[in-house]
Amino acid sequence: MRLLIMGPQGVGKGTQAALLSKNLDIPAISTGDIFRYNLKNETPLGLEAKAFIDKGLLVPDELTNKIVKDRLAMDDAKNGWILDGYPRNESQVEALDVMLKELGTPLDHAIALNADRSVLMERMQKRAEIEGRADDTPEIIAKRLDVYAHETAPLIDIYRNRGLLVEIDSTGGIESISKNILAALR
Ligand code: AMP
Questions:
Q1: Catalytic positions, please?
Q2: Residue range 121-159, pLDDT digits in tens
Q3: Ranges of each domain in the chain
Q4: What's the distance, CA 111 to chain centroid?
Q5: What's this model's pTM, rounded to 2 decimal places?
Q6: Is 123 assigned a ligand-binding role in the annotation?
Q7: Got the DSSP string for 90-134?
Q8: Which atom of ligand 1 is nearest to the CA of 85?
Q9: Is domain 2-181 annotated with CATH 3.40.50.300?
Q10: CA within 20 to 30 Å of 17's CA: 49, 79, 86, 166, which one?
Q11: Nearest atom (ligand 1) to Cα of 147
Q12: Is 171 assigned a ligand-binding role in the annotation?
């Protein structure tokens, strides 16, 4: 199964992607995690992306599309995957369309997780305390939510119009949200 998991920061995309990965035996691919790995290891990609990530801005499409293309071409992605944090704008949707066409593997569903802003802020605050992510300061969180509202939220309509959207309420327990997602995919 080939899936996108979408929704604002703090809605639980990473957590749910990990559970789906286990349940469906497909890799969860997070562009944010790939960038963070490269930042930590100070690779050329990490150094190029750093200035954008530190400001809560999107890394340029050219760079981001290439890491996704390379990742989807890997062996463990042959039988499916869950993309978390990509696509983030319309140009990335188009780039993904081209990649999938070239691979001959259409997308099955786009899962949109929904939660109130107060729930998102609370979860991100908690994550900031636990993980100590450099981009989890109040200013950068606000910037990232802003970028999400302007550039990424409109993509949900694109996948709705294609008949691929599965919308899930992401308040409540982690396990019950995961069950709801799996039930909706079946
Ligand atoms: P995330 O963990 O998904 O919130 O991503 C953390 C940061 O990585 C974002 O604020 C962006 O700077 C960068 N990033 C992750 N995914 C993308 C993407 N699809 N396009 C551009 N930048 C991204």
A1: 13, 88, 127, 133, 144
A2: 788 878 888 888 778 888 888 888 899 999 999 999 999
A3: 2-181
A4: 10
A5: 0.93
A6: no
A7: HHHHHHHHHHHHHHT----EEEEEE--HHHHHHHHHHHHHHH--T
A8: 3
A9: yes
A10: 49
A11: 10
A12: no
